[in-house]
Amino acid sequence: MTRLFGVSAFTGKVVLVSGAGHPLGRALVRRLASFGAMVVAIDTEAKAMYGLAAHRPDRIETLPLDLADPEACLILGESWGVEPLHLVYDFSALSLRNDSIGKVAERSEGLLSSIAQGLRVGMGRAIVGLPGDDDGAVSGMLGAMVRQWNVALAPAKLHGVMIPQASKHWTATRCTSSGDLMLALSHPITRALSGGGVLKDASWAEVTGKDEDGGS
To answer: What average pLDDT does range 198-207 have in this prediction?
Structure first.
């Protein structure tokens, strides 16, 4: 990433990462903080978020919120709704567990509606990670949401990234590879790329092992 793009482009940027408890979210929060960005990390697990902030307390702020809850969205909106946001990454759909499709959509919709003004003011870039489910129900619904919100967020841009096997086998190598794609999409070198589209993360390979934090 350093050789290809120049990470100085992220220095001083205000970045929000939802679903920061997912291995890809955790890895990206750490990388962005190391690049000099100010990162707001959001997930439902308070203990995990506090542990993440401990890596760079000067650059990582945490908000333990469930954005399927309207009150949580109100808190986020009051905290960051009008602040200029340069980058937003939403990985809340990648850990489906037992959540319904509606609950998955509520989190992403809640996030985007809460910070829409900040993204517009910052003329920012938002990336939504879409799980590559077998029947396409979740990814299809969220893909439609990406197209609709890209229009609503203008002049900011919204991109979707389809991630096969999104809930499995997040090794450190995979986190770096997928993270590179996320960073490339939000880097100034891709500013000519139109929003509203869904790309596929081709970095996935059938691998097994431990995730980047040592969990299975």
So the answer is: 69
Strand partners, 200: 162
Tokens of 208: 């097994």
Rounded distance, CA 107 to CA 215, Å? 25
Which amino acid is it at 88?
A: V
Cα separation, 71 vs 52, whole angstroms? 24
Count other C-beta atoms under 10 Å from residue 45's C-beta. 13
Span 110-145, pLDDT tens digits: 999 999 999 999 999 999 998 876 667 777 787 888
Q: Rounded distance, CA 18 to CA 63, Å?
A: 9
Asked if 82 contacts 121 with a C-beta cutoff of 8 angstroms, the reply is yes
Q: Quote the pTM value.
A: 0.88
Helix (H, G, I), strand (E, B), or coil: what is residue 109? helix
Residue type, 178: S
Q: Containing H/E element for 90?
A: strand 87-90
Contacts of 155 (CB under 8 A, 6+ apart): 120, 123
